[in-house]
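[job 0412] stage=fold_complex status=start
inputs:
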Amino acid sequence: MTSSVAIIGGTGQLGAAIARRLVKAGRTVIIGSRDVAKATATAAALGAELGRTVDSATNLDAAARGELVIVTVPFANQEATLREIAPQVRGKIVVDTTVPLVPPKVMRVQLPPEGSAALRAQQALGEGVRVVSAFHNVAAHKLATDEAVACDVLVFGDEKAAREEVLQVVEDCGLRGLHAGALANSAAAEALTSVLIFINKHYAADGAGLQITGAAPSAH
Amino acid sequence: MTSSVAIIGGTGQLGAAIARRLVKAGRTVIIGSRDVAKATATAAALGAELGRTVDSATNLDAAARGELVIVTVPFANQEATLREIAPQVRGKIVVDTTVPLVPPKVMRVQLPPEGSAALRAQQALGEGVRVVSAFHNVAAHKLATDEAVACDVLVFGDEKAAREEVLQVVEDCGLRGLHAGALANSAAAEALTSVLIFINKHYAADGAGLQITGAAPSAH
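[job 0412] stage=fold_complex status=done
writing structure:
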């Protein structure tokens, strides 16, 4: 049986897209938001579209109820959100999707002093939380459709078993995931997002992504 | 007419592979090494294989003679090498290929305090040098063959015209290059190399690479 998934910031574009794909795959999903009315509206719309009941809650309640927790909030809100939910997620897998974009220069790599948003997440959540990072490079507006998305998902974390569970979530979203090493390696995917935004602008593209060649990810 | 290319550290695996592909494409190449006898031996072997004359010199002389200079030395030698050749490359394009791998943990992203090896290169060379970075992710042992390599080359630099010239070098190597933004963005590709080394180990792969999807690089 797969774990229930709480999506913190689940009314945002990425969070709602992940929620929609996971519900379609048969997962139990709880949409979280700072504003419970917004969470309820997003969950109701999703449920109506898919003919399923989708749960909603405040971020805090969603974090408490989800067996696995995915955080999809803007970089500016990351630290406060994680500190708020930290007591609810002890021992759980928390998937941080934060990309450290610093407006207005979002096409420029600006990694935080901790080295990556993922390492910052681990600091904010504390050592008892199994932090994994993923979903940095996939274009949310593509994930929000039923189309295949030509973008691999690099999955980072210090614990292989936790990465494995997140790979299953990635596959439930219809994406190919790859073990990509320690949480510190998350810097690579986080930085790459600014590069992809640059490429989108330079080549007038709409949602450039990346694929890893030469590896056999079925072997995980 | 294309520029002559000096390859600093041209007897190493990556440098020799780039040299071989550029000579095959008809470029004038000067193989540089700290040890001129090694440079001469590499150039002679390459020339014999390809039926061409390939030049050789000390790193210092190669840097003075090349119109475009590619630096392919290990991270540990990068700063000293660049400081040595700095007076020879004022006003020239210098392509830094350095990946900040810190043995023994080469599968772990460990970016330098400057943010990237490319920014460190700019500091070591000074502001009068047109620094571009590229070739971080391509497996040297694949580039050393005549086979197609399934890996894009992300090209970073603060000056678009300089990136354009390097894109031509990349294409002469038979690879697809993409404008990838400012020199600071080089951190993304540099970090990704540790991820690729991890993926090679985890999936028992031999030279994983990356491809950018959804962009139309013919538009540069």
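[job 0412] summary: Chain A touches chain B through 47 residues (CB under 8 Å).
[job 0412] exit 0
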